[in-house]
Fold this protein.
Amino acid sequence: MKRREFLEDSIAAAGGMLIGVDPHAAQAAVTPMIGIQVGAVSFVDEGTDKVLDRFGEMARINTLFLATFTYGRGIAGRQIRGSPLPDHGAQEYDDSFRGGNFATPHPQYYRNTTIAPEKAPDHPGYDLIADVLPAARRRDMQVICWFEDVFRRDVPGFDQAMEIDVHGRPTGLACDRNPNTRNFWLGLVEDYLRSYDVDGLMWGSERQGPLGNALVASHAGSTTGGTIACFCPYCLDAARARGIDVDRAREGFLALERWAAALRAGQRPADGAFVTFWRLLVKYPELLAWEGLWTDGLRDIYRDLYAKAHSIAPAKGIGWHIWHNNSFSPFYRAEQDYAEFSGYSDFLKVVMYNNCGGPRLARYIQNIQRTLFADLTPEQVLDFTYGVQQYHEQPLARIPQRGLSADYVLRETQRAVAGVTPAVKVWPGIDIDIPTGANEKKTQPEDVYQAVRAAFQGGAHGVLLSRKYSEMALANLRAAGRAVQERRRGSAR
């Protein structure tokens, strides 16, 4: 691709991302947002200019989603051990990865939280935003700070922000109602927007409430059951303010926990799994009330971060990464109301990872069939899931090896675009080389090409190549660029 063509596309896309532009109308007039998630290690290993030039030339990238805060390996660090290293970057694993803030924390923004704003020690003296931002500006690329709800237990002060489970134990996860958690995220938003001239923010929380966790209603659930939380003092006070009986809620979740454990152990009640679950809901309406309490706590975080960001920089967008469980669990999907999101979102990155989606859907079916749907066969559970989630793919025996099709991306994009208001942009997350099991689906160039095409056919206002450049094969990156370039040529006709 010629540099002039790339710059023209980037400038047009930058205009289309401005707040206040109707994305439905703008889509036909400008090149859409073409983003990629990338962490500090890629710039340190390969060189900032080299990486950015590669993005522009191979995939026509015009927006960088920098992994600025995380303690997890999903969006930062090199490829995880056990998966092959890609054909670029350092050819060794970084097993000593710790994480933290990959920019420079400014202490004045964290005075109201006990959680220490740790600078990531992985690359001493390196500030991801300060390094990349000038180079991105020279290429007319936009920069979004991308941060997620993933901590380590040993972060100083985090022990005073953790959820407390139904047994009274700290979980290692942040409680969204705890002021230390909320003030940490508010401080991070203010720090990024006041300390750097970035173009926007994206935050993600790949978690669900206690009811979904008890049912192990996710692709990532543990075979021993999920965490039932939160019962910290802040959540107890919030429950009492709503008139929820705390003791009854605790009693109900303990009963639900025993019910789920018995089913996973192969013990089938005479009345069946579903009937006895429903019986628990009727006996303990506090179960659903507590689920709503947890979900509202997360929504309050979204609202608070949106309000804080817009109070500082009204013209800069802030949006959310919507967890992949949205594609599998109808219970989780019910709580991801796109219309409601529209009140506190400038954009949504809805995860539509179709390659790893096959293995993940199979794991979800395996998990939920051992609890709530134990009365059915796994194949029957999959058919039910296809019906209520409104997409139809391969049989259960095939999806781990074949993944999900581009039609899944098309349908999920159409649903998201129909669900939001016209002011909210929908940027489907397209997976490239996310690790899967030894005999499971691996990303191929044609998969990426078709997924990107499907997203745009579904009305997407852009695409976000995920989950991190440090695990992507270059051939797959080029395939995304081919789809983008073909769309550009088609729009020019």
User: Anything to note?
Assistant: The first strand starts at residue 33 and ends at 38.
